[in-house]
Q: What sequence folds into this?
């Protein structure tokens, strides 16, 4: 799977079918935002540009999230090859608000 | 030699102005995004509050495991103490908790600690099966709730260290207790579910909900 990072660079990582995407990224030394690590808050949100994920391990994930192609990678497993745009928590929070769905407001690593 | 401006010399609050807070201004002068910090603290307060609520239910279903019940009670009351500790800090910083408790619960930064077998709180436990949740399944919920709290408070410590000593002190106290809670529940899950001894290194609190770090010198914790 390929991660598109905020600085415009990309990183390619292999992820097992039963592995969470965030764990695979960490195995490759790629440090991405995360907080609850239970698929609840939105710190680890990404945009799924290509491919599909299994989000059944997430504690809170809505069909609207899937339709808008957001994923919470702390609990997402790959169902295909993936291309993911990282650091999408602000976008996902906005999406949740537009759909009147729950969204923690705190942003990961952003108090400075 | 270059003159280095002192952070505390950058103030702008005028004498008698009660619309501004020097306690906020000084954080901003040190690079803290106070609004972002407030939002994060509200999410964290929501998590402590919902945890307190759900632990109230979880402990009820530890009947017959009186030792587990008491330990769950310690964690429950200490999480309430954390909520009590965080809330004044939110207001000091100029924020407020939501006026609607539903909004507060929805924005909690950690998952609801539902009683196992309730379909995420949608039905009574054992409905249709007659089987209530096991002690091991309840302890697993408690363990994962504590782990989320540790991640949250570690992040708040990282974000405030060297910039906001008051919030840092609060977060560090809460983190101390959350780390202890995780150790308790690792010990209990490990023995109850797997029959393996993994000592927490602790024995017991004093009175229930003693909260040795967050209540021993509360800066505002009546």
A:
């Amino acid at each position: 799977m390929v991660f598109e990072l905020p600085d415009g660079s990309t990183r390619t990582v292999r992820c097992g079918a039963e592995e969470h995407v965030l764990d695979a990224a960490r195995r490759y030394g790629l440090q991405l935002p995360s907080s609850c690590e239970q698929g609840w808050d939105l710190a680890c949100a990404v945009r799924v540009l290509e491919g599909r994920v299994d989000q059944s391990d997430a504690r809170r994930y809505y069909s609207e999230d899937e339709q808008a192609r957001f994923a919470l990678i702390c609990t997402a497993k790959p169902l295909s090859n993936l291309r993911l745009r990282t650091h999408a928590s602000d976008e996902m929070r906005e999406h949740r608000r537009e759909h009147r769905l729950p969204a923690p407001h705190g942003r990961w690593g952003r108090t400075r | 030699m270059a003159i280095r401006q002192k952070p505390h010399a950058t103030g702008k609050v005028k004498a008698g102005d009660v619309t501004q807070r020097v306690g906020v201004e000084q954080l901003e002068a040190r690079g803290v995004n106070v609004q972002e910090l407030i939002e994060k603290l509200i999410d964290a307060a929501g998590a402590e509050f919902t945890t307190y609520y759900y632990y109230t239910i979880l402990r009820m279903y530890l009947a017959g495991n009186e030792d587990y019940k008491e330990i769950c009670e310690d964690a429950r009351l200490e999480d309430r103490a954390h909520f009590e500790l965080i809330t004044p800090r939110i207001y000091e910083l100029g924020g407020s908790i939501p006026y609607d408790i539903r909004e507060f619960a929805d924005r909690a930064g950690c998952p609801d600690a539902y009683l196992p077998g309730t379909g995420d709180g949608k039905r009574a436990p054992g409905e249709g099966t007659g089987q209530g949740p096991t002690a091991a399944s309840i302890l697993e919920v408690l363990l994962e709730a504590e782990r989320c709290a540790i991640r949250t408070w570690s992040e708040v410590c990282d974000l405030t260290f060297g910039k906001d000593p008051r919030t840092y002190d609060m977060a560090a106290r809460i983190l101390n207790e959350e780390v202890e809670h995780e150790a308790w529940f690792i010990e209990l899950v490990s023995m109850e579910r797997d029959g393996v001894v993994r000592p927490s290194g602790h024995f017991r609190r004093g009175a229930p909900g003693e909260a040795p770090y967050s209540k021993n010198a509360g800066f505002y914790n009546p």
The interface with chain B takes residues 34-41, 59-60, 102-112 of chain A (CB under 8 Å). Residues 49 and 83 of chain A are 5 Å apart (CA to CA). The radius of gyration of chain A is 13 Å.
